[in-house]
Design brief:
The complex is a heterodimer. By secondary structure, chain A is α+β, with helices and mostly antiparallel strands. Chain A is built from 6 helices and 5 strands, in the order ββαββαβαααα. Chain A has 2 domains: 75 residues, Ubiquitin-like (UB roll) (Roll); 69 residues, DNA polymerase, domain 1 (Orthogonal Bundle), CATH 1.10.150. Helices cover 37% and strands 15% of the residues of chain A. In chain A, helix 3 packs across helix 6. Chain A is globular and about 45 Å long. Chain A starts with a strand and ends in a 5-residue tail after the last helix. The mean pLDDT of chain A is 96. By secondary structure, chain B is of the alpha+beta class. Chain B folds into 3 domains: 172 residues, Aldehyde oxidase/xanthine dehydrogenase, molybdopterin binding domain (Aldehyde Oxidoreductase, domain 4), CATH 3.30.365.10; 149 residues, 2-Layer Sandwich (Aldehyde Oxidoreductase, domain 4), CATH 3.30.365; 315 residues, Aldehyde Oxidoreductase, domain 4, CATH 3.30.365.10. The N terminus of chain B is likely disordered.
Chain lengths: 155, 710
């Protein structure tokens, strides 16, 4: 089936089965490797991307459901996004496999809740697993990203 | 106190842990006077490659799996060589002698920095002297008049200076000095100071750094369909059931099942799911967790045949004279490593029959040899490129996934991207062993512990994971790890082990035998303290009275945690102390019950690892070890039924989520000056017993079985 996907501001024409999960369309067809396969059943969050600004699990969303929407992946975050800056400042990742998903989840959380409390961060990030145990740094980095978003000049 | 040498030899767990010959456990030679292993011209020794712009590529002996060793190695080299840290790039070397310990290249046992610190420093010092010699020859000045700093060689007298790039080729031809002069540490710019990790920027930008991100031209995608029953082999499959899925190209028999080959990943995964496949029956098709537990507990009976691992003092006499005897049985389950990245690799065989592999492995030789055997070639015909790992934790010490990729590549004659689904990653086994223990203590009239008697029983990690197996009658090191080498002292202290063979594959799991045994011992110490009406911290002090270094570690943790300070109602503290991998670690956890589940408000960790290279790297390993250890303590257990793991994805094999993570972790790094110890593993074992002991204090009920929320 012929589909049009808008990813990171670019329109792509794809000829794939409509029920193919968005994750595999991104990874195998658009060669965007940031979103990761972790579980395939939307319980780990490694595949998290934005669909129309909301964090979604690309491993279960059919590509046809994403067609027509606006998709942002980690590659489209720009590299200098406050969340990415905070992640580097606080040296969050260890192995890094889950971190693209964590960052996308955090960016969506902050877009909706610019100044989240610790409880809101924990609840908002609870769907994203990290086996290396970076949760304490993720929590601190989301807080820090909120500061950077509120005042981009703050070093 | 044990010397480091004694500690290394007696802490037998890691020798088994990384599954290597005895020589692996010995300290290696310090001077790696090694020629380049690749034949490239711009190498200075085997470790450092310097390009025309003076960028240094360090070929590291270690896998970067998140533990941060590549950054530690970059710091060691940048400081000793004299270049900016930003000028050092780190890759994992291909297997060759300079990168091996005891004949094997691999990353396990928390050896990454403590073992390689001196060899890498020596290699960088050699390279510096070779670069200076090359510049001296070029400028016809004595090498002694030259200095290397900030990436430049400078001749102060003539004001001549050059970057390292133009010198590299000539330096590579200089005979490496056998005993290069190491810099004074006062010249170091990075060691012991906060530095950014070398691997984080690409990870934060989502750049393709993992094996599954690599795209080779003409590649096909292969997804395994493996037997859920441990170790079962393929009987037959109906190819058409997979070929009916659009995009599926082929089905190939592989060890333990089949691989469905397709033009893209999703087709391969769907095809694997759709494939009708049968496996041969095994003798353990009805195996279940309850049976395994029963068999392990049978190992605690007097008539079971135990192998002695430690026999200090006259146990019978001390127990006969005891005023009080405390005894308790404990049990720990099988655990999955559950790295977030399921097993995968890229593999292609070129026109010359060379097998090229890009794979996330912790053991380069073991995997290269397995690939060579599957391809029917000698190991030198395999080029193994180790990618960053999406987590290792011991799961990638094995080589159980590599042969199948070779088989597929040979069958389809195309480059292959090979992957397992999460279900196989969690379900194929190679778990942390389940184990039980019976702990006994003899107390005198003053409540002093006069004897400790410990029997553990369970399957042998060594027998399952070691390529050599474990001969009958020999003790399995990991089954008594941190017990036979426990720093606690009593008049009599015996440790023995009963081997219970179970057909579930096992592999070292971060901190290995220290994880079960630390739980058994440290929870038991609290039970003994309670029986003797003593403070558990005070009892630990009494058992460690002979060891000032250990006392300092538990005192530091207790002080920072405010051990004597009152807590709000409904909250309690627990302490645990475990020495493993050359480091001493004490943790105090502050716990309450939230909706009936333990919640950890604060963990104080005191870690004496001798000395450190990257302080923030150490802290991140402490935090990660605590979170992973807490995960195991609270929620993890592999459930076995019908010969197979029943919980094969994160819906049924939960790992800790953020809401259950400790609210605060305070890390105190103690640089005692003792020989450098490990960091990746030692912070993990104390957290489970620390939390269990806090719960015991909170509820009055001892914890004797994990996980806590089962």
């Amino acid at each position: 089936m012929h589909l049009a996907l808008t990813v990171n501001g670019q329109r792509h024409e794809l000829d794939v089965e409509p029920e193919m999960p968005l994750l595999w369309a991104l990874r195998d067809f658009l060669k965007l490797k940031g979103a990761k396969y972790g579980c395939g059943i939307a319980v780990c969050g490694a595949c998290t991307v934005h669909l129309n600004g909301a964090a979604v699990r690309a491993c279960v969303i059919p590509v046809s459901a994403a067609a027509g929407g606006t998709i942002t992946t980690i590659e489209g975050l720009g590299g200098d996004h406050p969340v990415q800056r905070a992640w580097l400042e606080l040296q969050v990742p260890q192995c890094g496999y889950c971190q693209c998903g964590q960052i996308m989840q955090a960016a969506a959380l902050l877009a909706q809740t610019p100044k989240p409390s610790a409880e809101q961060i924990r609840a908002g990030m609870n769907g994203n697993l990290c086996r290396c145990g970076t949760y304490p740094r993720i929590e601190a980095a989301v807080k820090r990203a909120a500061e950077l978003t509120a005042d981009p000049q703050r070093a | 106190m044990l010397t480091r040498r004694e500690f290394v030899v007696s802490a037998g767990g890691f020798a088994v842990a990384v599954q290597l010959p005895a020589a692996w456990a010995a300290d290696a030679a310090d001077a790696p006077a090694s020629p380049p292993t690749t034949g490239a011209a711009n190498f200075v020794t085997a470790y450092l490659e310097i390009d025309a712009e003076g960028m240094v590529t360090l070929h590291s002996p270690t896998t970067e799996m998140g533990q941060g060793t590549h950054t530690g190695h970059a710091v060691i080299v940048a400081d000793e060589l004299g270049v900016d840290l930003e000028r050092v790039r780190v890759v994992t070397a291909e297997p060759a002698d300079p990168f091996r310990r005891g004949g094997q290249m691999g990353s396990g046992g928390s050896w990454g920095v403590r073992h390689w610190y001196t060899p890498l420093r020596t290699a960088a010092a050699q390279a510096r002297e070779m670069l200076l010699a090359a510049a001296a020859a070029q400028w016809s000045v004595p090498a002694g008049e030259l200095a290397l700093a900030n990436g430049e060689v400078v001749h102060a007298g003539s004001q001549r200076r050059t970057g390292l790039g133009p010198l590299a080729a000539a330096a590579g031809r200089v005979q490496p000095p056998a005993a290069p002069k190491l810099r004074d540490k006062s010249e170091f710019r990075y060691t012991g100071r906060p530095v950014p990790r070398v691997d984080l920027a690409p990870k934060v930008r989502g750049e393709p750094v993992f094996a599954s991100d690599i795209e080779r031209p003409g590649t096909v995608h292969a997804c395994a369909r493996l037997s859920p029953v441990f170790g079962a082999t393929l009987d037959s499959f109906e190819r058409d059931t997979a070929l009916a899925v659009p995009g599926v190209l082929d089905v190939v028999a592989i060890p333990g099942g089949a691989a469905v080959v397709a033009s893209h990943t999703w087709a391969a995964m769907r095809g694997a799911e759709a494939l009708s496949i049968r496996f041969k029956p095994t003798p353990h098709d009805a195996l279940d967790s309850a049976t395994i537990s029963r068999e392990m507990h049978a190992g605690l009976r007097a008539e079971a045949k135990a192998i002695k691992a430690r026999e200090d003092g006259d146990l019978a006499a001390v127990f006969a004279a005891a005023k009080t005897v405390v005894t308790a049985d404990y049990e720990a389950p099988y655990l999955a490593h559950a790295p977030m990245e399921p097993w995968n690799c890229n593999l292609e065989i070129d026109g010359d029959g060379i097998v090229h592999i890009w794979a996330p492995v912790q053991t380069q030789d073991r995997n290269r040899d397995a690939a060579a055997a599957a391809a029917g070639v000698t190991p030198d015909k395999v080029r193994l490129h180790t990618t960053y790992l999406g987590g290792g934790f011991g799961r990638r010490l094995g080589s159980d996934g590599i042969a199948a990729a070779v088989v597929v590549a040979r069958a389809v004659k195309r480059p292959v991207k090979f992957l397992w689904r999460r279900e196989d990653e969690l379900g194929q086994g190679w778990y942390r062993p389940a184990q039980v223990a019976r702990m006994k203590a003899a107390l005198d009239g003053e409540g002093r512990v006069r004897a400790l008697s410990i029997r553990t029983a369970g399957p042998s990690l060594g027998a399952s994971f070691s390529l050599q197996g474990l001969p009958a009658g020999q003790v399995d090191g990991s089954s008594v790890q941190t017990l036979r080498d426990s720093l606690y002292r009593a008049d009599a202290f015996h440790v023995e082990w009963v081997r219970v063979d179970v057909p579930v594959p096992m592999a070292p799991w971060r901190a290995v035998g220290a994880t079960q045994n630390g739980f058994f011992m440290e929870c038991f110490i609290d039970e003994v303290a309670r029986a003797a009406s003593q403070d558990p911290y005070a009892l630990r002090r009494a058992l460690l009275a002979h060891d000032p270094r250990a006392l300092n570690v538990i005192d530091t943790a207790a002080r920072e945690a405010g051990w004597d300070q009152p807590l709000p109602a409904g909250r309690a503290r627990g302490m645990a102390f475990v020495a493993s991998y050359g480091s001493l670690c004490a943790e105090v956890a502050e716990v309450s019950l939230r909706d009936g589940r333990p919640f950890v408000h604060r963990v104080v960790c005191a870690l004496d690892c001798g000395s450190i290279v990257t302080p923030d790297g150490v802290r991140s390993q402490v935090e990660g070890g605590i979170v992973q250890g807490l995960s195991a303590a609270l929620v993890e257990a592999v459930e076995i039924a019908a010969g197979a793991a029943q919980n094969r994805n994160f819906d049924r094999y939960p790992i800790l989520r953020m809401q259950d993570a400790p609210a605060n972790i305070d890390t105190i790094i103690i640089e005692s000056g003792a020989p450098m110890g490990g960091v990746g593993e030692p912070p993990l074992p104390p957290i489970a017993p620390a939390v269990a002991n806090a719960l015991h204090a909170l509820t009055g009920k001892p914890v004797r079985k994990l996980p806590l929320t089962a």
